[in-house]
Every structure is written in C-alpha cells, then in structure tokens.
Known about the structure:
Layout: E1 4-8, H1 13-24, E2 28-32, H2 42-50, E3 55-57, H3 64-73, E4 77-82, H4 89-94, H5 96-116, E5 121-127, H6 151-169, E6 174-180, E7 182-184, H7 203-211, E8 218-221, E9 233-234, E10 236-238, H8 239-254, E11 262-267, E12 273-274, H9 275-286, E13 292-295, H10 310-316, H11 324-338
Parallel strand pairs: 1-2, 1-4, 2-3, 4-5, 5-6, 6-11, 7-10, 8-13
Antiparallel strand pairs: 9-12
Helix pairs in contact: 1-2, 1-8, 3-5, 5-6, 7-11, 9-11
Amino acid sequence: MSKQILVTGGTGFIGSHTVVELQKNGYDVVIVDNLSNSKIEVLEQIKEISGVQPKFEEFDLTDKQKVNDFFKKYTNLEAIIHFAASKAVGESVEKPLMYYNNNLNSLMNIMSCMIDYKVPNLVFSSSCTVYGQPDKLPVTEKTPRKEAESPYGNTKSICEDIIRDTINAYPELKGIALRYFNPIGAHETAKIGELPLGVPNNLIPFLTQTVAGIRSELSVFGNDYNTPDGSAIRDYIHVVDLAKAHVVAIERLLNNKNKANCEYFNVGTGNGVSVLEIIESFERATGEKVPHKIVARRAGDIEQIYADTTFANEELGWKAESTLDETLLSAWKWQEHIGK
C-alpha cells in the first residue's frame, strides 16, 4: 500500500506542485485547504498532470475540532507537509493578529494531533525571512536568525520554535523545516501555477499580469538599496525544484535518514538576483516588454538575501536545476494559459 501523506494548503501555489511530485513518486496524498487563497479547480488540474486526483477536505486548520475529526478519519497518515499559512509580507504588517492566529494555531492544532494519533513526521514550510537582514551573505543554515522585519516572518520563526520545542518534548516526532527563498515559475504543462486571488502581493504574478494588460504597470519598490542596481535582491527558485525538495525531505524522514530529530535546510538556488535583473531576464526569455516604474520602498522588505545551498545539496542530494530564464518563461506560459 502506498504511503499516505497529508498536504495542508495543497491547492495553493507551492502545495499543488508538491502534490504532483508526491503522486508522481507513488504517494497517496490527502489535501486539507480552506480555499482562502486558491481554487477548487486546482484538484482537476493536478489530476490532468499526474493522472490521480488527490483526496480533498475543505476546512480551516485553526478549528481544533475539525482538525481532530480529520485525524480520526484518516488513520493511515505517515507524514505531514504543512504549507497552509497566510503569506503576504505587506498584509501581515497591516493585519498582524490575523497572521498570528492563522499561522500559529494551525500548526499547534496539527502537532497536537500528531502526538494524539501517532503521526511522527512533519515537513514544515519555513522561510528565509527567519534570517531577517543578515549581516553576512550568502546565508547558511548556521546563520543566526534575526528579529523578523514583518509579522509574517515572525510567525515562521515562532513556528520553527514550536516545532523544535514539541519535538524535544516528544522524541517520537521528527521534523524538517525547509527555509524557502523566493519560489516562482509554474509547471511545464502550464496547468498549475501561481494564482493569487485579487491583486498579487508577489513580484512575478504582478509582473506577468502587467505584461498581459491586467495591471497598468509594475511597481519596483525602491532603487536606493545598497545593491549594484539599487533594487532589492532575492534568491528566486523554480517552484518545481522546490516541490522536489519536499519529496526528498519526506523520504529522508520515512527512511529514518535524518541526523537529528529537527533539521533545517535552505532551499534556494544560491544566486542573488535583483528586481531589475528579473525584468531584464523576463524580457529576454519571452520577448515581451515589462512596463514598470520605481516607487518608494515597501514596509517589511529587506535589502538582499540569497542562500548558500551547500548543506541542502550535499545532505539531501537535491539541487535546483532550472535557469532563471526557463523559470520566468514558465511563469509567462502559465499567465498566457489562464488568459488575459
């Protein structure tokens, strides 16, 4: 019998791509999602790609009773990948209580049930925001965490602490926190991709919607940072490369290859790319022009961050493979697919 994995937030951007990769590798996937930032149609698109429609339960993970009922129903779970979270930096500055309530309570409800129902393995969707603005680049897994620049970033740090402390108290549990850098792009079939509801908070969907004529122009937040071209620098990773890292992390836990009960890995490319370089790369890859303007810096944004991926590459045997041009072209094909 194939191993059953719970994927929370599995109809979302990263979640849906990870479900596809899990199913391609023979896992039996159950998705829990409240559809607050995704659409039910994604299930059909996952089926079109992988040939399998995952099981699906729609509810909010902050509802403790519903989480408990779920675990009572699904008694064969062997691992959980926890994506479900509010994730917009700017919005978190405006609505901190919403972020703390959603991101912390959902995790605590899940971990309570992991203990009660003896589900030992957790892969957590963490973030490079836990490093704040690092003193030294690139960041390694040993780079000290800093006070977060936003409530969103702070929830990721607190969630990491909750996982660590709970695993210390319950040694039968094991966890891996994958600290993502900036996931972008879409599946090569253009059947799934990043589909924010309303005005996008992330750079790439706003960029592709601008080129498609949905938005009038892209705002570049700041050109006065201490970077070569003045715009902020990030480490942009293809979402499929990121999804594959989750499969590797799950296999590491299920096969007891982990070297500590709680492990941390940077999941990025190791390359820092500025916002203006993203625009340049997109135009080169697609032949389309990106209307844009420079505006003031945005609250909660840091100047620059990119990963040292040596530890993840060597320890997990995983590496990001897609080039930036390929990744941005996939994002544009997805935008063309969903229409103008």
